[in-house]
Amino acid sequence: EPLMSGQKYRATESMVISNGKLSITVMGEQMRGTMESTREKITEYELVSATERNVVITNDTEENTRVVMGQPQKESETNVLEGKPLNGKLEDGKWTFALVDGEPTDEESVELEEMSNPDDNALYPRKPVKIGDTFKISSKQMKTFLADAITRDPSGSGEGKVEEIVEHVGQQCARISMKLDARGIIEEDGQEMQITIKVEGEVLRSLEIFEDLMVDLTGTISFGGELETLGQPMSMSVVADLHFGIDSEVLDNN
């Protein structure tokens, strides 16, 4: 059945970096370690109409763990919009989100802006495509999709293919097989590293609300470079498994 106003669904997004092998060389001494990173974001939507919905991010946390020479380091970060009621409106094919109550802080404004420019839109052609069509994904498009990972000098290429139309959580979706091979520079705290991300898998993209309702992309991530720590030059490299996932489910309308 098509989308009904009042229908509620939940989307769970995850990005998992696992089995990371870390190598650091400082003053000729090499240290080895491991690295893991998990980000999980759970969002609940209530459809008010085809062009409006109420949104609550019930959970959005990123946890990073590094172990070097047996010493663990943990970092955790939570989205400032977590738990706050939001309202989204669709105009000219683009969703814009705002707080239901009050004015947003600067930090909240940044997050709302990111929600209004979802990275996944970047991967798709602007022109209509039909079943069986393949489409190229440029390095610039991949940089937008991987905005948190590639900050400049994108290269590489990707490809998508529209396999069939299927129904998922009550919506008509295009099942798209996808392959991405993206490279570039990641800048953090004024330092830069080369990064490569290679993933493949499939996506179910809603033809009704223009969003990815299911994503299953698996592959590898590697990054490294010459850095500086406490005034000392050091080189670092990481190679790890990578998985991007999105899963959606319809909620009971209670």
Characterization of the model:
There is one protein chain. The chain has 254 residues and is mainly beta. The protein has one domain. 7% of the residues lie in helices and 67% in strands. The protein is built from two helices and twelve strands. Strands 1, 2, 3, 4, 5, 6, 7, 8, 9, 10, 11 and 12 form a twelve-stranded antiparallel beta sheet that branches. β1 (8-26) and β2 form a beta hairpin. The radius of gyration is 20 Å and the shape is globular. The mean pLDDT is 91.
Concise description?
The protein has 254 residues and is mainly β.
Label this structure with key terms.
12-stranded antiparallel sheet, about 65% strand, mainly beta, about 250 residues, single chain, globular
- What is the multimeric organization of the chains shown? single chain
Number of strands: 12
- The helix content is under 10%
Beta percentage is over 45%
How many individual helices? 2
Shape: globular
Whole-number average pLDDT? Answer: 91
Please state the CA-atom Rg, rounded to the nearest Å: 20 Å
Number of discrete domains: 1
Structural class: mainly beta
Question: What's the N-to-C terminus distance?
Answer: 19 Å
Largest sheet: 12 strands, antiparallel
Order of helices and strands: EEEEEEHEHEEEEE
Low-confidence stretches: none
